[in-house]
Amino acid sequence: LQPTDVVASWWDYGYWITIIANKTTLADNGTINATQIATIGEMFLSNETEAIKILDKYDATYVVVFTTFDSNGNDVGWGDEGKWRWMARIAGLEESAFGETKTDESTGRTYWEWNDKGQETVIHKMMQYGKEVTLGQSPTVQLEHFEKAYFSQTPGSPKSYGGAIPLVCVYKINYI
After folding, report:
1. How many CB atoms lie within 10 A of CB 119?
2. Which of 46, 121, 152, 153 is deepest in the core (most CB within 10 A)?
3. Strand intervals (E) in 27-174
């Protein structure tokens, strides 16, 4: 990344990005501007067209998401697939607008099922695209304003830790 690049991520990762990568972020663990954090949550839960408008206001050049999943692509819940609910709450949005919790009858495992609106959110699309590429699958998600810049796992041969595949995805923003 260039010295002038600005990275959008959920506030949890802000310090890592600032300290380790020496990049400007929109929020970090010390951000006390609740409005800014709410706006970031709104951006992640918007469709790409609306998210681009928000990111443009901050001159952001990259977006980072973190997700964890198993070798079948099931969410583990340690990353943004668990944190998106806080993004919604802080942004004043209803979780139920994006899908519902379901239970697998055969295993008893509960999981989140995104509805049509939820599947169009930036957070869902970025996590899903990253999972599918990492698992060596053809992406079912099309990204209009974002392109892969860096993924922390090798496509087709991800490393698992305790049954979870952790994945950091860095996407370059395309404002065109």
Report:
1. 16
2. 121
3. 62-69, 99-103, 110-114, 146-151, 165-173
